Amino acid sequence: MIGEFFIRRLSVAPMMACTDPHERYFLRLCSRHTLLYTEMVPAQAVWHGRGERLLAHNPEEHPVAVQFGGSDPRQLAYCARMAETYGYDEVNLNVGCPSTRVQAGRFGACLMAEPGLVADLVACMREATRLPTTVKTRIGIDHQHGYDALASFVECVSRAGCRTFIVHARKAWLQGLSPKENRERPPLRYDRVHRLKRDFPQLEIVINGGIRSLEQAEQQLAFVDGVMLGREIYHNPYLLAEADTRLFGDARPVLTRHDLVRAYLPYVERQLALGVRLPCMTRHILGLYQGIPGARAWRTYLSERSARRGAGTEVITQALSSLPTEIETERAFG
Ligand SMILES: Cc1cc2nc3c(=O)[nH]c(=O)nc-3n(C[C@H](O)[C@H](O)[C@H](O)COP(=O)(O)O)c2cc1C
Q: Which residues pair with 263 in a beta bridge?
């Protein structure tokens, strides 16, 4: 079962203000194999010396990829080197973010209009590091209505040595839609991403956008090499608990939600001792009991009590003990 593209069979999407080191630590407890991405790190900030704060992560997070946003070859080459120094497993270039701030810096999704520049950036990053350099993109922007622009983009960038493309199966409108609206509209076109894999069988194609369950992920794997999930994991992290068994062939037992919380506690203790505030860590587990009795009580208790002055891990253990006892043994969704 272990193939060339196995590592990206399932991944969690980069999400600003969500996929921070605490979130990734918790998600790693849920799944040993799923590849985790950082949120987008601006290349300029690393270039100007903020790398230490922006690139620090926990050794337990592996496999973990760092995503950079930028369009300056020197800055991105520097970032790629830093990614290797910091021990990441992959460097990813953001060619999908539609925000106006990002466009003003001439990076993110607007780079889809400049495949030659993206190819140069990839070439510089690859020269600077031995890590795999990957690109996360959209199926098109603005005027790029058909499939051809996507295919020529991928062809051009792959000639610079990029072998892995993560494709959010939705076009980005750079004018008139906010980043949030750009994640709901225009409609998803999975067929375009499937066609990309058919046309470029030698490349690794990972599909992203609107996938909400492991069943859907498994269905997608008939057409592409990997599946990336974003919002669903953030709102319902327990979905990952069965991923190792179902998608990676790992026979080890699936942990219960309670097991995961208990495994997270020592980490939370350590972070509190370093001065991190409790809500920074509890916010990532608010959705853990989603869909089962007690979910709302768990969420309310944690969000209200974590914010109180001096709050510690007792808030989490009390929230656990307020849940119905039968949940204690409930594994995954079956
Ligand atoms: C809050 C939030 C922040 C995001 N930040 C990033 C980011 O930093 N880099 C990126 O490439 N995509 C970002 N995205 C887009 C996601 O990576 C993903 O492509 C998108 O949400 C579609 O996948 P989904 O439907 O599974 O959520 C973000 C999405 C959300 C919801």
A: none
* Pair 27, 52: CB distance under 8 Å: no
From residue 229, alpha-carbon distances to 37, 180, 201, 324 in Å are 11, 16, 22, 29
By DSSP bridging, strand 226-229 and strand 133-138 are unpaired
Whether 114 shows a pLDDT value over 70: the answer reads yes
Atom of ligand 1 nearest to the CA of 231: 27
Contact 57, 89 (CB under 8 A): no
Share of the chain above pLDDT 70, in %: 97
Active site residue 97: yes
- Residue 89 · residue 76 · CB < 8 Å: no
Q: Give the integer Cα–Cα distance in Å for 310 and 308.
A: 6
* Gap from CA of 5 to ligand 1 centroid (Å): 22
CA-wise closest residue to 291 among 261, 327, 321, 245: 327
Distance (Å) from CA 228 to ligand 1 centroid: 10
**267 token code pair:** 């980490």
Q: Tell me: the pLDDT tens digits for 47-98?
A: 999 999 999 999 999 999 999 999 999 999 999 999 999 999 999 999 999 8
At 40, which helix (H) or strand (E)?
A: strand 35-42
In angstroms, rounded to a whole number, what is the distance separating the alpha carbons of residues 214 and 10?
Answer: 9
Cβ proximity of 189 and 208 under 8 Å:
no
- Atom of ligand 1 lying closest to residue 180 CA: 31
Specify the DSSP class assigned to residue 50.
I
Ordered by where they begin, the domains of the chain are 6-246 (3.20.20.70), 257-329 (1.20.120)
Q: Which of 18, 30, 79, 97 is catalytic?
A: 97
